[in-house]
Amino acid sequence: MARRRKFLSPDEPLRHPDHRRPMTRREFIAQGFLAGLGLVTAPTVFSLFANPRAAYAALSSDLEALKTGCGIATQGAGKIPFICFDLAGGANIAGSNVLVGRQGGQLDFLSTAGYSKLGLPGDMIPPLANPQTGSNDFINTDLGLAFHADSAFLRGILEKAGGRAANINGAVIPARSDNDTGNNPHNPMYGIYRAGADGSLLSLIGSRSSESGGNSVAPPAMIDASARPTKVDRPSDVTGLVDTGQLIGVLDQADAVAVMESIQRISDMKLGRVDTRVTADAVIKDLLRCGYVKAADLADRFGDPSTLDPALDPDIVGPAGIFSQAEFDGDGEFRKTASVMKMVINGFAGAGTITIGGYDYHTGDRAVGEIRDLRAGRCMGACLEYAARVGVPLMLYVFSDGSVASNGTVDDSPEGRGKGVWTGDNSSTAASFFLVYHPGGRPQLFSGDSLGPERHQQLGYFRSDGSVETASSPAANNVNLLVETVVLNYLALHGEQGRFPVLFPSHGLGNASLMDSLTAFDPIVNGTI
What we know:
The protein has 529 residues and is an alpha/beta fold. Helix content is 30%, strand content 12%. α8 runs antiparallel to α9. The termini are far apart.
């Protein structure tokens, strides 16, 4: 009787005999030596997000009117929340997870050898017949975007957000990406921020202490030092973001807010006697007035310790939550995802990056990659489900630095699921994809040209042999332009793709017609939510 093989758990590091020992932060993350950390927190000062739909105790009307003039927002900038998953190390996305095809779109099928290179043996490939007459074996379009029916990403997403499938659609972007290198400027968050995404507490957040907030760097031309992401990868990072001072401990929340409001009014009366010309006096007056208003607003919104902590949100954790208590307590990646999605989806940060390490998974089997992909899918599904519960749209973007390929050997273990073994890195098999959730119904593919919907579900294409056609789109052989393509699509969801050349005057996406061909969806909101 054959002995059952023991596979690495999702959190065990990868030790490749053909790789030198990791020496940089990026290499440690890619091979899983730096895993996502997390803590389960008890009630703390910062618990605002537990139920964003509950009414806050409003400030008095005179102070409420000052909030706009002081630039104090309560629910972000009104843009669609944006979360990206940075799968560090070179994960498989194309073929075995999201289906990719030739020039005709996702269902313009590759050759049998091409699918084998992407990890799918001959008995698990989509039909090579015309999709209008052939069967739909191994094709799943529950999310609008076509996935392989046994995709681990898809299984994880449907496990957490299967009931929201009718309100989700997506697009895949075939795009070559170098392996195991810091020279992939994949992260789009600064571009999303420039497009208008902002939060009422923080502009950007990320689960790594890096300039991009993630594992991959951001395009240098997009970086804005004033919006550098704040690290958030556990509930205690969230709850530590706001300090309402000791007044809440002395008085209850309502009394503390009343005291701060009174201080502001007294201060404002005194400041009214100060010279109001554009002088240092005027500047000081403005700073003081807004400082007191902000203090009162923070105490009003953040003074209740049951409001911000993702661990205390019943929509996230518990009997009716997205994660069971055991899942949340036992997996740092779930706690990390909960912390970021809590901030972004509630409008307290404009965009966030979730880095998950250990995706350099060419370990001589298929099982390790399947197990890790399944967990990533669950994290993606959690974000989509939480957006649905909060009642706001969400753009979810997934990328990885590089990719992998198979030599056709099959892993028949239960965890390997009869799929091709990942035998090495391969930058030519890479792709990224995004999903869009819309409370009002499934986002509709772009209707502004005559290319046909299938050409907007896949932005670019693969060669028959399973490699990216590097001339198929500006993004296909240039990661900087891949980021620009993602930002263009974010603007298009707001009906604002016309702003793209203004915001990025040196962009490389070509004329208006070419940009239309790179746009996946019609708008789902008009400018703002």
